[in-house]
TrEMBL record:
InterPro entries assigned to the protein according to its UniProt record, in alphabetical order: DUF423 (IPR006696)
Domain of life: Bacteria
Transmembrane residue ranges: 39-57, 64-82, 94-120
Position of the signal peptide: 1-23
Keywords from the UniProt entry: Membrane, Signal, Transmembrane, Transmembrane helix
Pfam families, alphabetized: DUF423 (PF04241)
The protein's name: DUF423 domain-containing protein
């Protein structure tokens, strides 16, 4: 297995764990709706990373484009969830437009998965 695949699998595991922790914090905190959104993005995209790596390993996605998509899921979800979490606990954003930037990166990553499927050799 490629080093990039192992890295992505590890990052997906961390994202999943953080997503569960944020879900718990959301359930037990007051006015913590931001944490629920952050949790959902982490959990959903952790699963998307696992699926993308599995499809890459089976040759069903173009390798380079699929890797870009998977790393985009990591970056986008981290920006989105990180910004919402920081707003919740510190009262300020990661940087201006961090959450929308993360959302845009996730959208672009989904489109990259579409492209990677379309141009795959398999």
């Amino acid at each position: 297995m490629m080093l990039a695949h192992r890295l992505l699998l590890g990052l997906a595991g961390l994202m999943g764990a953080a997503g569960v922790a944020l879900a718990a914090a959301s359930a037990h905190g007051t006015d913590a709706s931001r944490l629920a959104s952050a949790s959902a993005m982490l959990l959903f995209h952790a699963t998307a990373i696992l699926a993308t790596v599995a499809l890459l390993a089976r040759g069903l996605l173009h390798g380079g484009i699929g890797l870009v998509a998977a790393f985009g899921f990591v970056i986008g979800a981290a920006l989105f969830a990180g910004d919402l979490t920081l707003r919740q606990y510190a009262g300020h954003s990661l940087f201006p437009y961090a959450a929308p930037t993360g959302g845009t990166v996730m959208i672009a990553s989904w489109l990259a998965v579409t492209l990677a499927a379309g141009v795959a050799r398999g």
